[in-house]
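User: Hey, quick favor. My workstation is busy. Could you predict this chain's structure for me?
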Amino acid sequence: MSRVYFTDLRTNPKRSLLDKVEDLLDRIKTKERIKKTDLVAVKLHFGEKGNTAYLRPVFVRTIVDYIKKIGGRPFLTDTNTLYSGSRSDAINHMNTAIYNGFDYASIGCPIVIADGLRGANGIKVKVDGEVLREVSIASDIVNADCLVVVTHFKAHELSGFGGALKNLGMGCSSREGKLIQHSTVAPKINAENCKGCGLCTNYCSVSAISVMEKKAFIDPERCIGCGECIIICPFKAIEIQWNESPDMFQKKMVEYAAGALKGKEKKAVFISFLMQISPACDCYPNNDAPIVRDIGILASIDPVSIDAAACDLVNNEESLPNTAIKNVLKKGEDKWRALYPSIEWRTQLEHAEKMGLGERMYNLIKV
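Assistant: No problem, here it is.
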C-alpha cells in the first residue's frame, strides 16, 4: 500500500503548522525527486476573485522556500479557465493571483500561467486511456522538470470532490483539453425556478445563455458544458444535464491527469490541505460555508492514495450545521453524495488505479 502522511492542526510554540509542512515534505523524500537546477512547477489554484477558501499564501511560501533550499527553481502555476471570470486569460489570471496574495514579495518566486496568454499553448501527450489516446497538456507543465501538486481539497459539482487528480487533470490541461473534458456536459434550465435575472449570461464565456420572455435559455450548440452557471444561479434554476454519464467526465479527467504526469512519475509530489472544505470549486467568485471542520494536511507521492485518504477523512467527520449539506450527517456517512447525489465520486479513484496512477489502498501515517 502507498504511504500517505498526515498531520493534524495541533501545534505548540516549538512546532508550528509551517514546520509540519516541512516535515511532510521530508517524509515523502522530496529531496530525492527534485534535483539542483530543476525547474519545479508548483501547481495550485490561485482562487477566483471574491473566493476566500483557496489555500493561504503562507503555506505556499513555505513549500517554495523548501524547494529553493534543496536547489530547485520553483514557479507558481495554473492554467486559464474556460468560463468568463477573473482567470480566463493570463493577464487577469496573474492580477487575480496577486490580488489574492500570490505575488513575488509574498511567495518568493515568479508566476507562470502554463497554457499561455489565452490558454492555447498546449502540447499533445499520448496516453493509453479507455476514452482518450492523446491529451492536450499546458506546455509549461510538460516542459517543467518536476511537479509539486498543492491542493485545497474540497467538494466539486462535476466530480463529487476535487483533489490531487482534478488538480492534475483539469488544472494542467490547455483550454482545448478543458473543452474535451467538458464538451458533453450540458446544463439545463428549470423554468419554474428561473427568474430571468440574467446573472448567468455574465458568466458564460461563449454567450450560450440568453434571456427570452423573462426566462433563461441555453443554446446547446454553443454550450461547452463548463458548469459555471450551475453554481452562479441564485435560484438553483440551472441543473446538470448529462448527455453522457458523470463517470465519463471523471474518466476523461483522470486520463488528462495521466498526461500531466507522463515523464514525471518519479519527479512529482503531492500535498493536500483539508482546511475550509467548501461544497464547490474555488473557481467561483464566492465560497459557501465549510461542510466539515478543518482536519489537517496530507502528503504522498501517490495521487490516488492521497485523494482516497482525503475522502475517507472527510467522510469520517460529522458534517457542520448550516451548510450546503442540509441535514447534519454522522461520521461515516457520505458527504459527497449528500451534496451531489447523481455523482459516483469513486469513479475517478477506480479509473486512476486502473490507469496505473496509484493505489486506492493506503497506509495513513501520522506525523
